[in-house]
Amino acid sequence: MLASAPVLANDKITLSFNERPPYLIADASGAATGLTGTPAAEAFKKAGIEVAWSKVPPNHQLVVIKEGGPHCAIGWYKTAEREQFAKFTKPIYRDKPTILLANPSFKGKDGDKLGDILGSKGVRVLIKEHFSYGPFIDSALEKYKPATTVSNGTSTQMLQLVGANSVDFMFVSEEEAQYLVEQSGLGAQSFKQLHMSDMPKGDYRYIMCSKQVSDDVIAKLNKAIAEKKIK
């Protein structure tokens, strides 16, 4: 079988994203803006690489990247598993520490350690399907093996499960917590935000591309990204 031709710098890239304020917000033209959307758009523009914007659910983004072709996606964490089928640029954003959005009846307290919470008897954790929460949380979930409910719904839909006391809490970035609470329609009193005392600073987010996207394209994007330092 013949290998697929690499996607070169003068080829149009289909750039996928899923709306997730404040990270990714579609503007009137259909392009992505937001904490990760804006720097990604700027990187492609500075690199002189034409893009076709595409709103795609996260799970389907993974399928498209695995299938190859002129495809990239915005705001993904880099993991060893994903590096088997994708290429990553330099980071475009770094999250603030992850927090827990919990229902008020949950006994966990602000300032607790993550291991103490995950190891507590009867704890019920809501996690997103095929989603990495970064090495610290992923390894803690594997170590303590709490009872988990897996969802393929939106973050807002997931939060409604928390508000209904179907689960105790979900992991969210500090940046999006307030937005999600507002979107839930349940009111701020229906949730509590818990900051873990041992939670490290958030992980980096990247542009993830298929293996068929050439190294030259990645290099051009990296050069554009490097002009803006990520703290």
What is the CATH topology classification name of the largest domain? D-Maltodextrin-Binding Protein, domain 2
Beta-strand percentage range: 15-25%
User: Any idea what the CATH superfamily of the largest domain is called?
Assistant: Periplasmic binding protein-like II
- Which CATH class of the largest domain is shown? Alpha Beta
Number of strands: 13
Give the class from helix and strand content and strand pairing. Answer: alpha/beta
Estimated radius of gyration: 19 Å
Secondary-structure element string:
EEEHEHEEEEHEHEHEHEEH
Given as residue ranges, the uncertain stretches (5+ residues, pLDDT < 50) are none
Main pleated sheet: 6 strands, mixed
How far apart, in Å, are the first and last alpha carbons? Answer: 45 Å
Shape: elongated
The overall average pLDDT, rounded, is 92
**Total helix count?**
7
Number of domains: 2
Fraction of helical residues = 25-40%
Corresponding CATH architecture of the largest domain: 3-Layer(aba) Sandwich
Describe the protein in words.
There is one protein chain. The chain has 231 residues and is an alpha/beta fold. The chain has two domains: 13-94 and 203-226, D-Maltodextrin-Binding Protein, domain 2, CATH 3.40.190; 98-194, Periplasmic binding protein-like II (D-Maltodextrin-Binding Protein, domain 2, 3-Layer(aba) Sandwich). The chain has seven helices and 13 strands. α1 (37-47) crosses α7 and α5 packs across α6 (174-184). It is elongated, with a radius of gyration of 19 Å. The model has no long low-confidence stretch (mean pLDDT 92). It comes from Rugamonas fusca. Residues 19-227 form the Solute-binding protein family 3/N-terminal domain. Keywords: Signal.
